[in-house]
Structures are given as structure tokens and as C-alpha cells.
Amino acid sequence: MTDELLTAAKEMQEWLTTQRRTLHMVPELSLHEFKTSEHCANEIAKLGLKVTRLWGEGFIADLDAPNGTGRVAIRADMDALPIHELNDVSYRSKHDGVAHMCGHDTHMTVALGAAKLLTRYRDKLKRGVRFIFQPSEELPPGGARGLIEKGCLDGVDEVYGLHNNPEMEVGRIATCVGAMTAAADIFEIKLTGRGGHASRPQESLDPIPAGAELVGMLQTLVSRRVQPGKPAVVSVTKFHAGTTHNIIPDDANLMGTVRTYEEPIRALIIEEMERMVKAVASAHGLKHEFKYLRGYDSIVNHESGVAAVARAATAIVGAENVDTSFEPKTWGEDFSYYLQARPGAFFLLGSGNKSRGIHEPLHSARFNVDESCLPLGVAVMAKLAL
């Protein structure tokens, strides 16, 4: 059966490639996945499955098992990124400044392929399958919560998702038990003083030195406040103040991200950041604003889900190509909320090929995938369902 699945998936290579490239050429940003969603829904409908729209452009479709009970869900995200693609390929993005540089076109194609393949094996299904096409993975608070609140997991026993990884060669699959991605948060800081002429700083309250001091303090937050061995990242990624060389500005604005794996560490960093901002502002006689947006929680894979992925992946690509001890990454992903509601797992599908020059990282303007990964993803997802 496994050989049959893999063979059938590989026979779909041309169709899968066409699907992926079609989606790649018309990328749409979060909450604007109109044509993307329509394309996926139309392809699902061609298979005889009913499309049920739930939240935004997100929808579900069920493949019932005539001789089985229960249901497993397969999720695909649909949105693209605000990046101008620099690849010189025939299927390059037609929307300047928007592109699938995270590979969600690959994820949708795998889900469509799994649906197409599993309809052939409907009579052999041990349980039903739900396909979840989700909008807005890239834009916090994400589309997962919206779909879950609207019932996308009602009647579902397990849920699985994947992400392509160009840093892994095609044919490799990776996952791990427990935390696999980080909680991805955003912070904004505003320091407000009193502007004036740069030649008479004593008449002003300059927010720039305070901002610079705060940047330095935040860089030591993890090394001096977080217990050694507990991973965390605090990065200031934006510092904006002033308009020209001879004016002290009224305010300085900082922005950045925090990545953690454990809720107590997350809470500690929020508390310490707020204390630091308040202290620095007070020392310089400034007013302050501190905003902290809790982004996606960490993906925490269930042991049973990882075991199921390992069995399915081993059957498709061989045990030597399956890594179940993958080192957690500091990426953010809202698949975390599905796993808070149901057992399951998230896994990575190798999409790189160094010999062909396909190795650019996710979110690069030159990101691409080796499309021979598509049937492998389809076969693994189908195997999970069967």
C-alpha cells in the first residue's frame, strides 16, 4: 500500500507542479486571499467534496470514510508575504511586492494533492479526513484561532500540519516531541521628551540617549535575567527618532521581537522589559509608552502525533531520512493553537536542493522550492490519514 501511495503521488507530479505555480503567480496578503481561496475551493469541489466557509477566506472540506470512524485534519495556510520576488522564473509572482516567499503555495498544493489522492482510496479510509485551508498565518493574531472558534476542529480527533524547509534537502522529514517553534511576540516602546535646537541640548529632554541606553539594556535581559539553559531571544529591530541633523526630536520609537518556548520565561521577560522602560524613562525625565503584543504561542507537538508522523514518513522516505529529534526553531507559527485543542503534530518537509541552487532561507526574496518535494508531502499526509 505504501509503495502504491508513493507511486500514485509521484504520478501526480505534473499536476502538483501546475497547482503550485498557479498559486505562486497570484499571491495575496493575509486576509486578502480571495483568488487563492477560490482556486483551492474550486479544486476541492472538483473532487466532489463540499466546501464550507468559516472565517475570512478560510474553509474546510470533509472526505468521509464509508467504512471508518473518527476524523483526522490536515491544515494548509494560504497567505503570502509583502516581499518583492527576485527569482527569474516563468512562474514568478505577478503581484509586485507580494510573493510566496514562505512556501504556503507548497503547503496548499500538498493539501490539494492529498485530497485528490485520498479520494481514490476512500473505501480504504479508516477514518474521515478534514482539509483546513487557513488564511492569515503571517499576520498575528493569525487565522487559526478564527477558524477554531468557528468550529473547524469540531468532530476532529487529530490534526497535522507541515512547513517546507529549504535548509533541508528534498527527501528529508523532521519533527520533534514537545516545543518545535517559539512564541513570537512584538514590542513597541515610545519615549517622549521635549525637542529643541541641537546646539542647546540643555533646553531639551533628548529621548535619543535614553533610547540608546535602553537598546543596550535589552540586549542583556536574556543573559542576566533568564536562567542559563532556557532559550530566549530579545531583538530590537527598529529605532526611529528625529528628522534632520540640527533638531533634537520630541520622541524616539523602538520596536522588536521576543521569542520564547516556555510561558514562565515569556512572562518574566515582559515584566523585566516593562521595568527597564519605566526606569530609563524616569532617569531621563521622559514619558514612556510600552506595548507588548503576544503573538503565536509555541507549537508543542504531542508524542502520539510525532509517533504517527514518524511511522508515515518512514514508510514514504525511509527511516534514515526521518529526524524525530529536530532542534526547535525560533520561528513563529499559529499551528500551535490547533495542537492546544487536539492531539497531533507539525513537521518539516525538506524542500531544498543545493545542487540546483535551491537553498535560500524562508522569507528571502530569492526563496524557492524543489518541486520534487510535493509528491513526498502528499504521500506522507495521505499515509497519516490512512
Q: Your description of this structure?
A:
The structure is a single chain. This protein is of the alpha/beta class. The chain folds into two domains: 2-181 and 298-385, Aminopeptidase (3-Layer(aba) Sandwich); 183-296, Alpha-Beta Plaits, CATH 3.30.70. Helix content is 34%, strand content 25%. It has eleven helices and 16 strands. The longest helix has 21 residues, at 263-283. It is elongated. The termini are close together. The model has no long low-confidence stretch (mean pLDDT 96).
CATH architecture of the largest domain: 3-Layer(aba) Sandwich
Total DSSP helices = 11
Please indicate the count of domains.
2
| Shape verdict | elongated
- Taking all Cα atoms into account, the compactness measure Rg is 24 Å
Give the overall pLDDT as a whole number.
Answer: 96
What is the ordering of alpha helices and beta strands? HHHEEEHEHEEEEEHHEEEHEEHEHEH
Enumerate the strands of the largest sheet in spatial order, edge to edge or round the barrel. Answer: 1-2-4-3-5-16-6-15
CATH-assigned fold name of the largest domain: Aminopeptidase
- SS elements, strand count: 16
The CA-CA distance between the termini, in Å, is 10 Å
The CATH C-level name of the largest domain is: Alpha Beta
Q: Which percent band covers the strand fraction?
A: 25-35%
Q: What composes the largest sheet?
A: 8 strands, mixed
Provide the low-confidence segments as ranges.
none
Class of secondary structure makeup: alpha/beta
CATH superfamily (homologous) name of the largest domain:
Zn peptidases
Oligomer: single chain
Overall helicity:
25-40%
